[in-house]
Amino acid sequence: MGFFTDAYDLFCITTISKLLGRLYYYDPTTQAPGKLPHVANNWVIGVALVGTLSGQLVFGWLGDKLGRKKVYGLTLILMVMCALCSGLSLGYSSKAVIGTLCFFRFWLGFGIGGDYPLSATIMSEYANKATRGAFIAAVFAMQGVGIIFAGLVSMIISKLFLMSYEGKPFDVDEILSTEPEADYVWRIVLMLGALPALLTYYWRMKMPETGRYTAIIEGNAKQAAINMGKVLDIEIQAEGDKLAQFKAANEYPLLSNEFFQRHGLHLIGTMSTWFLLDIAFYSQNLTQKDIFPVMGLTSKANTVSALKEMFETSRAMFVIALLGTFPGYWFTVFFIEKMGRFRIQLMGFFMMSVFMAIIGFKYDYLKTKEHKWTFATLYGLTFFFANFGPNSTTFVLPAELFPTRMRSTCHALSAASGKAGAMISAFGIQQYTQDGNVHKIKKAMILLAVTNMVGFCCTFLVTETKGLSLEEISGEDGRQNETKMKTSKPDSGHQDDGWE
């Protein structure tokens, strides 16, 4: 539910950004619907990503220092408060409203950032090695559900207001085309993001600290056995001698030669692939409002009212998410333990690159009215293979490759590099799509195709983790497994070490 909330909060801004332009930036001299200036648009959409990057680094580090559970509740409180405050952005002028909105969305993103490394780490440290990948992927798959609900909730609320307050099309009446009641709509959409987070607070606080953190970092094998027993509903015996062995093999710090020799390439691999993936993934999600009119899924702005435009944008986002985005996540959940992380990531990057290149090179052909469904299908397939591919595996791998003492921090570093890529899409790639310039959109899609191919190559820096326990992967069991880790096929005959 944390990840459901994260995705809803991050992506619902796509459905309301055009409405904000209509409400606060209408200029009668232009004889065109109000539109957020490029700088304001970039900040409204991108500021939460800046906050997410900051939150990932801070909470990821705190998760290793203070424990997963202690920090987990704090992120939720921050998300609830800032989701509510985002909808209460005050002021009479456009600068005041957008300024306060950006302020609260930064801190909302800060809380969301903490959920990334903590959710992945907690799930990886509780799961059995045979199903660990599927469980972590299932946590991340809730992002797809969150994106669907961002479109669905926006669609329902805008439709309800349309039924009572529908304005005239812009080309009929410029003033009355922007419904005054629309100012409530975007606020309600943002504030509803607090609800799922609030509902899960009790269960998040009841969750015990992970057994691995309690044993290896706090050195309390007895409490670790009790915590694991609560979650798994079985009796577990504490093994003090094994704990001493794990602790002795896990004392080196992040900034050390030993860490670099053991995990340096893995960290470079997880950071680079997540960075490159998010340039493409967030470019697709954040700019789809600009692509939809070209695909014929939404009407031209001057032929509809403000709320009608929001409804059509939300509906298109919902359909693309339901048919393209959502299935990809669950294909990963079902196939990750069969195909492995490595193959799924390679396949996803390659297929994304192919479909984006086709869209880029054939854009003039695809944007015609008679080919809009071909365009929509290709566009949807890029989402499908992002999620049945690197968007899921880049979340799973950092939660498995690194030792307990720095697992949350390394996941946070990987996730933060991803958000740096997302910021490039929000503040850079978006510039190519906002004006609907065909040449610029073609250039953006070809650039993203190249980015995905670089991600394909960087995938070879990481390794397969399927079928191995976390201690085998990180070397925490006191053995040097680096030679084994270089292969993409783990030894299926290797005996369980007791932890799993």
Automatic annotation (TrEMBL):
SUPFAM superfamilies per the UniProt record, alphabetical: MFS general substrate transporter (SSF103473)
Region (Disordered): 472-500
Stretches assigned to the Major facilitator superfamily (MFS) profile domain: 1-467
Catalysed transformations (reactions): phosphate(in) + H(+)(in) = phosphate(out) + H(+)(out)
UniProt cross-references to Gene3D superfamilies, sorted A to Z: MFS general substrate transporter like domains
Membrane topology, from the record: Multi-pass membrane protein
Subcellular location: Membrane
InterPro entries cross-referenced by the UniProt entry: MFS_dom (IPR020846), MFS_sugar_transport-like (IPR005828), MFS_trans_sf (IPR036259)
Keywords: Membrane, Transmembrane, Transmembrane helix
Transmembrane portions of the chain: 43-62, 71-90, 96-114, 135-164, 184-203, 316-336, 342-361, 373-392
Regions of compositional bias (Basic and acidic residues) in chain numbering: 476-500
PANTHER family per the UniProt record, alphabetical: SOLUTE CARRIER FAMILY 22 MEMBER (PTHR24064)
Assigned protein family: Belongs to the major facilitator superfamily. Phosphate:H(+) symporter (TC 2.A.1.9) family.
Protein name (record): Low affinity inorganic phosphate transporter 4
The organism of origin for this protein: Datura stramonium (Jimsonweed)
